């Protein structure tokens, strides 16, 4: 593993329906792998809960969100965090105008998923209008909508 420095605002951007995901680091060493994303999310309706094959930690930097994990709602304010175990239905909704958070995910699958989703699903269209493309991307990466 090598040392990496990434200035503010830099990193690959993956614009998605629920916000701009910026890859800040992808790390793999003898202990495992993880990825770090900075996410800026606008206000909008809560997406349906979805299940990912990776675990994630969401650490809120700015704004407020409501996180729904395995049927339980959590009000998250700056400095708060939510852990989402792999295989657990989860989603979030921004409370107010926008929110910014760090998302740390296990393995290297989230970045591949975000990149594919960003290329395939228009970020400026409602999810309902892109459902076929969404289901195609999620299937390719082992992600599925809860209950689907």
Automatic annotation (TrEMBL):
Against Pfam families, the record matches this protein to: Cupin_2
Q: What is the protein's name according to its record?
A: Cupin domain-containing protein
Family matches, as InterPro entries: Cupin_2, QDO-like, RmlC-like_jellyroll, RmlC_Cupin_sf
Q: Which residues form the Cupin type-2 domain?
A: 39-104
Query: Where is the signal peptide, in residue numbers?
Result: none
């Amino acid at each position: 593993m090598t040392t990496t420095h990434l200035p503010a605002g830099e990193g690959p951007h993956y614009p998605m329906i629920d916000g701009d995901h910026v890859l800040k680091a992808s790390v793999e060493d003898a202990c495992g792998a993880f990825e770090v994303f900075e996410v800026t999310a606008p206000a909008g309706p809560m997406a349906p809960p979805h299940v990912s094959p990776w675990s994630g930690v969401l650490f809120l930097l700015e704004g407020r969100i409501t996180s729904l994990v395995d049927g339980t709602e959590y009000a998250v304010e700056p400095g708060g965090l939510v852990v989402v175990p792999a295989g657990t239905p989860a989603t979030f909704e921004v409370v107010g105008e926008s929110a910014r958070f760090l998302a740390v995910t296990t393995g290297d699958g989230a970045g591949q998923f975000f990149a594919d989703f960003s290329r395939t699903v228009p970020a400026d269209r409602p999810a309902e209008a892109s459902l076929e493309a969404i289901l195609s991307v999620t299937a390719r990466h082992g992600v599925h909508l809860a209950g689907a």
